[in-house]
Design brief:
10 helices; mainly alpha; EC 1.11.1.28; antioxidant; about 170 residues
Length: about 170
């Protein structure tokens, strides 16, 4: 079990992260596709090879090929969009808000999985990447789609725990 491998790889000073990873393993907030897609998208977004490898190994048996690809696509498209829209949001010059992005984003319209699942993964990745505009946009779609505040908050908890694991591994190696 790969969450176990990841927990075992964490340094002793990351005991809380170890405990939090255990809570993810037993979490039943989401459907299997939502949960394991969150693991994949967040693992890729945190940019740590060990976290990515272990969590994709954990998730792969629970996801269809389409869902695994869509979770990866959520991390990739948000890597692009979070940089662009964070700039637009933070730039003092309001002119950028009126300009077309001119970025391909077709996967958002046709992710190959349930739209709300893709939005959930995109929200979590946007939290890792720190894009307030994207967080607001994805959260709005999720809430309108019927997800409650508990589910939105749980998705962000996944992002926080997975990011914490990546930072703990890097700190342990330093």
């Amino acid at each position: 079990m790969s969450i176990e491998n990841l927990k075992n790889a964490l340094p002793d000073f990351a005991k809380d992260t170890r405990l939090n990873l255990s809570s993810l393993a037993s979490d039943e907030t989401f459907t299997a596709q939502q949960k394991y897609g969150l693991l994949v998208a967040c693992a890729i977004a945190c940019r740590n090879e060990t976290v990515r490898a272990e969590l994709i190994e954990e998730a792969a048996p629970h996801l269809s090929a389409e869902a695994l690809s869509a979770a990866k696509a959520a991390a990739v498209i948000m890597a692009q969009n979070n940089v662009y829209y964070r700039f637009v949001h933070l730039a003092s010059n309001a002119q950028y808000k009126t300009m077309p992005a001119k970025l391909r984003m077709n996967v958002i319209g046709k992710p190959g999985v349930d739209k709300l699942d893709f939005e959930l993964w995109s929200l979590a990745v946007s939290a890792i990447n720190g894009c307030g505009m994207c967080i607001d946009a994805h959260e709005d779609i999720l809430r309108k789609g019927g997800l409650g505040a508990d589910q939105v908050q749980a998705a962000i908890r996944y992002a926080a725990i997975i990011q914490s694991a990546a930072v703990a591994l890097e700190a342990g190696a330093a």
